[in-house]
Amino acid sequence: MISDAPVLQQTSEPAESAAAPPRLSRYARPVLGLLLPLILALGWELVVWLGWSNGRLVPSPSRVFGTITELARSGELVRHIAATLWRVGLGFAFGVIAGTVLGAISGYWSLARRLLDPTVQALRAIPSLAWVPLFILWLGIFETSKIALIAVGVFFPVYLGVMGAILSVDRKIVEVGRTFRLSGFAMIRRMLLPAVLPAYVVSLRVGLGLGWMFVVAAELIGASEGLGYLLLDGQQLGKPAQILAAIVIFAILGKLTDWLIEVSAAPFLRWQDAFGRARGA
């Protein structure tokens, strides 16, 4: 018994050291993600500081940060961010609901796919700005038209993601469900839903990205507040620092909302034994 103690002690130490790297990598990944933007920002700051560029058309990061600080102190920044988040949130919700329902119907029911899919694919090719005059004519220049335009941008990737995920489900999974005589609801809940969920999360993230892009076009429709309005105001008044400040805020908000989807979906995807998860990606 006495001779076994050192052996146990020696075997426990490698286990602890093996558990340390994943913990470190968990904190290292966000730092690595910030490394490239910080290097680019510091590099351009150095270029302007050395006088190699006057920074008139592309202001230095310190000047952009100063513009953001001034907008925050005046209260304008909070107002613009809140207006844009409200529009993106509502448009995203409506687009996800419509895309999920129609994508599931088209993927599960072949007759509905033959009826719906050609029209949806044709509408998907229409540029975002082409919807603007039509929505102004139908819905006016107020919030309804802006939210509808964002919902259109979110709808298409969610629809395609859901329909494609259902169509790509392995036939053997369905046959196993039929062998166990699962009902239609049980088949969807226990077989189809887990198989579709990873692709659905990806389609949500793509739809959210398009929602952030469509909000700029939406805020050209008679908007008096929002980050898109801040962009347009900076362009009309010749304020490149304000334009870059709005772009930086767009990037930060877009990344944060994408991260929220990723974190919210993680508990439902723990069963995955995927390549990226095995490598800690």
Automatic annotation (TrEMBL):
What protein name is recorded for this chain?
A: Sulfonate transport system permease protein
**Origin: domain of life:** Bacteria
Which PROSITE patterns does the record cross-reference, listed alphabetically?
A: ABC_TM1
Q: Which family does it belong to?
A: Belongs to the binding-protein-dependent transport system permease family.
Look up and give the membrane topology term.
Multi-pass membrane protein
Q: Where in the cell is it found?
A: Cell membrane
Q: Does Transport show up as a keyword for this record?
A: yes
Q: What InterPro entries does this protein map onto?
A: MetI-like, MetI-like_sf
Q: Where is the ABC transmembrane type-1 domain?
A: 81-261
Q: Which residues cross the membrane?
A: 31-52, 88-111, 123-141, 147-170, 191-221, 241-261
**Short name of any one Pfam family annotated for the protein:** BPD_transp_1
